[in-house]
Amino acid sequence: MLLNELWTGRREINIHGSFIHRINRTDGIQHKWIGDFQFDQFRIGILGERDPGELDILDHYSMFLNTKFQDYDYTVGNFQMLVGHGLVSWRSIPVKSDFGTTNSILRRGRGIQPFRSGHESWAYRGLGWEQPMGHGQLSAGISHRKIDGSIENNHVNISNIGLHVSENQIKNRDNMVEAIGVAAWETIIPNGIAGFVVGGGAWRQDHTESYFTNLTSSVYGNYTISNLTLFSELAFTSQNKNAIIMGGKMKHDSFYYGIVFREIDNNYFALRDNAFRNWNNKELGETGVLQELRFRYDKINVNVYSDIFRRLEKLKGEFKRDGHETGISLDQKFNSKLWIQTKLKIQEASSENYGYNDYNFSSVPVST
Q1: Residue 111: its pLDDT value, please?
Q2: pLDDT by residue (tens digit) across 226-253?
Q3: pTM for this one?
Q4: Nearest 5°: CA angle at 352, between 347 and 355?
Q5: CB distance 150 to 173 below 8 Å
C-alpha cells in the first residue's frame, strides 16, 4: 500500500534542450559555451565565452531564467528590452541601409526578451517582466550591473569590443557601475498600435569617479489603412537631446515602396538606443532619408534603394559632411532549382579636411 502510494505520488520532470561548445579560429581561438534548457514552465539559458588571448577561462558569462505565471512573464538574469523602433532600448546590432531595410525598420520591438548574445556589456541584468495593464500590455525592467565603457561629452559610450588582453583592457574591465529602470506600455488602437516608453539610468565610472544620469521617454505607434502603413517614434532625454524616426510603406501585388526619415541629435543617448543610422559616429548626429522600391518586370524582380544622409555637426577642417548609398538587385528565377541574382551597391560617405596637419584634429571613419 505504501509502495503504491509512493509510486502514485511521484512526479516526472521532463527536461530538454541543448548544450554547444563552439570553437572559432579567427585571429586566434575563441571558445564559446551555449546552453538552453526547458523544463515544465521554466527556461534556463547560459552562455560562457573566452576570446583569443584572454587569461580567464571564463572571461564572460551570461545567464537567465524565464518563467510564466498566470498572465505574467518573468525573466531573471540577463535580458534585453525591445520597444518602439530603437530610439530608447533595442538590440545590440542596429539596422543599416540595405535591401529590405524599410520593411525591417517598421517592425517594432517585442518587449522583454532573454539575452543570448555574446555582447558583454549590452544586456540588462536584473528582473524583467510583462503583464496586462488596463487596455494594453506593460513591459518593465530593473537592472544593476557593471559594464565596460566610458562617460564622455554628456553621454555614455558602451564598449563593443569585450576583449580583455592588454593591460589597459584588463584595467578597464567592468569599470562602470550602471543602474537602470525602464517601462513601456502598448495598446491596440483602431487600425494600429500606440505606446510610450519611460526610463532612467545612472552611471559611475571607476578611476575617474565620473558620474552621469539620464532620463528618457518616447512615444511611438503605427497605423494601417488599406495598402498603406505609417509608423513613427519620437524620443526625448533630460540632456536636451532628441531623436525622431518616421516613415511608411505601400504594397500592392508585386509593387512595394517604402520611405524612412530620421533625425538624431549629436551626442544623443538614451539607455540602449540603437536606431537605424548610416554612420556609427554618434557624436556628430545624423539626418537622412531612405527610400526603397520593389517591382516585377516580366520575369525579373527588381529592388532599388537609396539613402541620402548628412551629419548635423562638422569636424574641424571638414568641408564635406554628407553622403549617399544606392543599391540595385535583379533576381530572375528560371525554375525551382535555378535562379540568378545580381546586386550592386555604391556608397560615398567620406570625411575629408583641407589638407593641413592639425594635431588636435582626429579623423573618424564615417563609412559603415
Answers
A1: 92
A2: 999 999 999 999 999 999 999 999 999 9
A3: 0.84
A4: 150
A5: no
Distance CA 34, CA 47 (A): 5
Burial grade of 96 (CB within 10 A; 0-12, 13-18, 19 or more): middle
Give the residue from 48, 53, 54 showing the smallest Cα distance to 22: 48
Q: Read off the C-alpha cell for 230.
A: 505609417
Residues 222, 200: contact at Cβ < 8 Å? Answer: no
Cα–Cα distance, 213 to 142 (Å, whole number) = 15
Q: Could you report the per-residue pLDDT of 166-220, keeping only the tens digit for each? A: 777 777 788 899 999 999 999 999 999 999 999 999 999 887 778 999 999 999 9
- Quick: pLDDT tens for 20-48: 888 888 777 888 888 999 988 899 999 98
